[in-house]
Amino acid sequence: xxxxxxxxxxxxxVRPGHRALLxxxxxxxxxxxxxxxxxxxxxxxxxxxxxxxVPMDGFHLADAELDRLGRRDRKGAPDTFDAAGYAALLRRLxxxxxxxxxxxxxxxxxxxxxxxxxxxxxxxxxxxxEGNYLLVPDGDWARVRPRLDEVWFCELDEAERxxxxxxxxxxxxxxxxxxxxxVRGTDQRNADLVATTRDRADLVVxxxxxxxx
Length: 213
Known about the structure:
Blueprint: H1 3-12, E1 20-25, H2 32-46, E2 51-53, H3 63-69, H4 83-95, E3 100-107, E4 112-121, E5 126-130, E6 150-154, H5 158-171, H6 176-195, E7 203-205
Parallel strand pairs: 1-5, 1-6, 2-5, 6-7
Antiparallel strand pairs: 3-4
Helix pairs in contact: 5-6
């Protein structure tokens, strides 16, 4: 399998009159975001189909709401997202009835969602969305998988995944000890859950095709 094979497979999801949605799942730090960005860049560089990147992370609950719910200390867990809102956005994108759909983004320096940050124009025929919990079969997350044409799973050596994740937390403001504690605690619990969903994926993407993120 090569990256070009992935680009061709993603492009083949789009059919005349059909907007396709491709999901990329995997644990924290497994390379989902980078793979999604590279796919969208490659597809748009070829001219067709036009692709857009819509991350799941825009559906993080705001810190104020996490404080109210008493969940701030495990931010990133499945119940710290608006899963129903994410599924509703995917349905709207699939319905393909609007000239522009605005999706929320996530500002990593602030660690907060940003409403209306990602415009998805009608011309975008392939939507690449990525996040930890696309294959989780429970609760409101169960609404996500039926909205997606395929879901790929990013697989990465555990030691490398942890190394990348610690480095990312440090890059966005945590000191080393705090970064390691968060990765070994909250992030690891989330990664363990995501790992149980691997077998539900249509394709497992090997580590050499994910550059991290």
